[in-house]
Design goal:
The chain is of the alpha/beta class. The chain has two domains: about 15-170, NAD(P)-binding Rossmann-like Domain (Rossmann fold); about 170-345, Lactate dehydrogenase/glycoside hydrolase, family 4, C-terminal (L-2-Hydroxyisocaproate Dehydrogenase, Chain A, domain 2, Alpha-Beta Complex), CATH 3.90.110. Helices cover about 45% and strands about 20% of the residues. The chain has helices at about 30-40, 60-75, 90-95, 115-135, 150-155, 170-185, 220-230, 230-245, 250-255, 265-280, 320-345, and strands at about 20-25, 50-55, 80-85, 100, 140-145, 165-170, 195, 195-200, 205-210, 215, 220, 280-290, 300-305, 310-315. A hairpin with a 2-residue loop joins strand 10 (about 215) and strand 11. Helix 6 (about 170-185) runs antiparallel to helix 8 and helix 7 (about 220-230) packs across helix 8 (about 230-245). It is globular and about 60 Å long. It starts with 19 loop residues before the first strand and ends with a helix.
């Protein structure tokens, strides 16, 4: 689907430049659907970067993706240059600069975690190989589908010619959930809170850490103590309410809504890519560890990160107390177990 040129073109020259190719897997699903229109409208890459969308689906999902492509055409987005729908990973990742790996095998009734990892290795391994073979030199990848950290690890291992640090996994959703909980508890706006960090795995073992967070110019822990009565009450709220609720928010939404997070997951994925591309002083993302904070090298673990527009980097040198160290170690141990399970399958 190509954009049309008018005699009197209202768009700036940048809007007519070569488009950025964005590939979305599982594009016919709900999260994919929630992503497509916002990306095409410029919410992810900005109002001056035209995009070409490539939608990858399994054969039985192609018709749904084709329907979304028709709707995209009907929106007449000025920045959208083309939409391709395919079930061929090589075609989907050909020339791709941004890959959003959304489609994944969900955990079914009675399925062991090892079975889930094996099923997703059969998805993310071939996708990583296709990225290795066909993607653009500036490719950056975010795994959205769960188990996201280890799915990113599998894809990276299957793309030996692509620098490993081009692969990330989504923990921005956990970061946003934590900000939302603090915003409500402190009766402040979300953008008044900074310095929060998500450590470890995108799972119930994750550690949402407020020890470096501030609300306006005040440490969050002090603001909580003032609001709840004292430091002991603040610590109790963090341990008994905040951390479990952030970690189990996905399950809570399934119970209340009857299905998993869609719009919030899509929003977090857009913000993850936007900040990686445009730059940010601080957020949370799962990146390939270089040994920071004692996380084994090569694991895809969540850290506090920053970006200068050339990819995420870990914020280093933060002090960790014994409480934080213990919680991070528990989540990292889960990532090690997942990595070892995948190795046993012969994938890594």
């Amino acid at each position: 689907m190509a954009g049309t040129q008018r005699q009197s073109d209202p768009h700036p020259p940048a809007a007519r430049e070569r488009p950025t190719t964005v590939t979305i897997t599982g594009a016919g699903g709900q999260i994919g659907y929630a992503l497509l229109f916002r990306i095409a409208a410029g919410e992810m890459l900005g109002p001056d970067r035209p995009v070409r969308l490539k939608l990858l689906e399994i054969p039985q999902g192609v018709r749904s993706a084709e329907g979304a492509a028709l709707e995209l055409q009907d929106c007449a987005f000025p920045l959208l240059r083309e939409v391709d729908v395919t079930d061929d990973p090589l075609a989907a990742f050909d020339g791709c600069s941004i890959a959003m790996l959304v489609g994944a095998r969900p955990r079914g009734p009675g399925m062991e975690r090892a079975d889930l990892l094996a099923a997703n290795a059969g998805i993310f391994g071939p996708q990583g190989a296709a990225i290795n073979a066909a993607a653009a030199d500036d490719i950056r990848v975010v795994a959205v589908g769960n188990p996201a950290n280890t799915n990113a690890l599998i894809a990276a291992a299957s793309a030996p010619d692509v620098p490993a640090d081009r692969f990330t996994a989504l923990t921005r959703l956990d970061h946003n959930r934590a900000i939302g909980q603090l915003s409500e508890a402190l009766a402040v706006l979300p953008d008044e809170i900074s310095g929060l960090a998500i450590w470890g795995n995108h799972s119930a073992s994750q550690f949402p850490d407020v020890s470096h967070a501030r609300v306006r110019d005040e440490p969050v822990i002090d603001a909580l103590a003032a609001r709840l009565g004292d430091r002991a009450a603040a610590d109790a709220w963090l341990d008994e309410v905040f951390i479990p609720r952030v970690a189990k928010r996905g399950a809570e939404i399934i119970e209340v809504r009857g299905s998993s997070s869609v719009a919030s997951a899509a929003n977090a994925a857009i913000e993850h890519v936007r900040d990686e591309q445009a730059g940010t002083a601080w957020t949370s993302a799962a990146v390939v560890s270089r040994g920071e904070y004692g996380v084994p090298e090569g694991l895809v673990s969540s850290f506090p990160v920053y970006s200068d527009g050339a990819g995420y980097r870990v914020v280093e040198g933060l002090p960790l107390d014994a409480r934080a160290r213990e919680r991070i170690d528990v989540s990292v141990a889960e990532l090690v177990a997942e990595r070892d399970a995948v190795r046993a399958l012969g994938v890594l």
